Each structure stands twice: as C-alpha cells, then as structure tokens.
Amino acid sequence: MDATGDFYDLFPLSDDCWEFFLGDVCGKGAAAAAVTSLTRYSLRAAAVFNDEPVQVLHNLNSVCMHEYLGQQATFCTVVFGVLTRAADGFDVTMTTGGHLPPILLRRAGTASQLSALRGNAVGIASDPQFGSLQLI
C-alpha cells in the first residue's frame, strides 16, 4: 500500500488455492490511504466467506457504498482472481471492476490483453456489473 491509493495482494485460501487482487482508489494522500486500507481488508474478508470473484467485488461494492454514502466521490478499480492448482499448472477465474484489462503472459512467452474482461468501477453504483473470465 502507498499514499497514492494503489493496492495489491496475493494470499492463500488453502494449499491448492490462492487469491489475488490489484487496483487503485480515487485520490491521493491520507483520504486515499484510508480507502485503500478499507478496500484491501474488505477484499480479503469477502474472499474467505465466498471466493467467487464477482461476488467478492459485489461485497466490496456494498462496503464502499455503505461506508462513503453521501460523501465525496470515493471509488476504486480492481482486478480480482482465484488461482487453483491444476494437474499442469493453474486454473484462473478473475473479474474486474473498472480496471484496465489484465495482460495474460503464457508459459510459451506470448502475451495477450484480456479485453473481454470489463466491469464497472467499485463504489459508484448500487448495482454494478462485473465481467468474469475463467482461464483453464
């Protein structure tokens, strides 16, 4: 975490499953740092109870809407995903809330932007839409 509002994390849910996220909150300084902290810990807590990526972002959206209701615009963009160990690597399920599409780097060294993965920023609408993608 830094004072600009950028955040990221990778944490285990079990021996075969990890979750990751990265994003950015609106603003800078102490206000952005407070939202960043709320966002990071809300994502971790939501993932423990329901690790389906779209639901995790809906839970984060609910927290942000409740916490900052009626205050100046406070929102974030997020990429959130689940890595599950598979026989030959990992299966990945991910979603995005307003963040730039992630870039997939394959074992062979090729890369492609996952431009089909789109969604609303988190914390600006009571019923946002989040795109989801599963890579096997």
Automatic annotation (TrEMBL):
GO terms for MF: phosphatase activity
Keyword Hydrolase attributed: yes
The UniProt record lists the keyword ATP-binding: no
Key words of the record: Hydrolase
InterPro entries, alphabetized: Bact_Sigma-Reg (IPR052016), PPM-type-like_dom_sf (IPR036457), PPM-type_phosphatase-like_dom (IPR001932)
Gene3D superfamilies reported for this sequence: PPM-type phosphatase domain (3.60.40.10)
Pfam families: SpoIIE
Domain (PPM-type phosphatase): residue spans on this chain: 15-132
UniProt signal peptide: none
Protein name in the entry: PPM-type phosphatase domain-containing protein
Lineage: Bacteria, Bacillati, Actinomycetota, Actinomycetes, Mycobacteriales
